[in-house]
Specification:
single chain; alpha/beta; Rossmann fold; 2 domains; two-stranded antiparallel ribbon; 7 helices
Amino acid sequence: MIAVLDTAIAEHRWFPQGIVIRDVRCADLSIGLPDHADGATEEPDRRIPLDGQLGPTEGHGTFIAGLIRQKCPTATILSVQVIQDDGVVAEADLLEALNKLWLRQKLAIINNRPEDLIDVVSMSLGYYHEDYADLAFDPLLLAPIRALAQLGVAIIVSSGNDATTRPMYPAAFAPYPDGVISDVLADELPVVAVGASNPDRSVALFSNEGAWVRAHRPGAALVSTLPPTDAAGSPSVEFETDVKEPALREPYGKTLRSTLDPDDFTAGFGVWSGSSFAAPILAGEIAAHLTAMGLPPADDVDPRHAVTRGWDAISARVPTLQRPGQKSGYRTGDARDAAGAAQ
């Protein structure tokens, strides 16, 4: 089970019943912002841009869910909305969501409900240290992240898209010598910061880098799912012709010809780039590895066992991250696969 903290995930034919859970709860508490995709009311000036264009993060979570589905088709995806329509993530919303996810995980362990356990959290968001308030926010954010990691939840975060070595958080909570967490710990899973690579496996120019970035995954010109909508844009060229092509002829003998409309996503798919999409690819790989390992016994909710399984999956997919005191957490074949994917 993968929790995606992002924008809402739209209905899509790639997400049949049971694949995406949108009403994520901790007991009677809802987790994440309200999902207005079902027609619930909201301030009209926030929901309908006056220029008719899609918002800057419209479909972001949907695109991520499609990437996860490509890597691990059997994964259950929890849609936890923390990104607002304008792309802003409020600190309080992110903290509340993470703390509720931790409480949900803890209750699943206490109440012996393995079906409620989360294996991976994928986050494609972050901030830089701009003032002292940001420094004060670090421990508040790190606490639920580490609490989840100690329960065996892998935390996968994108590195950012500003082509800088400046640490971006929460990705920079990944262990590195000068970081907040200076080294990997045996009893909790490490935060894994993921940078973006190009199709030729070079590092994408926009991708952030630094000692805290320990993995790279494809993040340029990816194809995935988008809400099946058409924005106000139009093709650059569009005209009718009387060319005699019976298979294409419209009524009255006219055929509409045009260039590609870049804002038409009615087919439900599109192309996008960003380290935002490298992180869920690795999250999907880790979920697929856990699936290949086989399900734990039905009554196994021991977080120590979850940490061991999580370390095995992370080490297999990110060979530079190994559990202290363990020579190798992966088989030779897995290592070759991981090395090839991480270029």
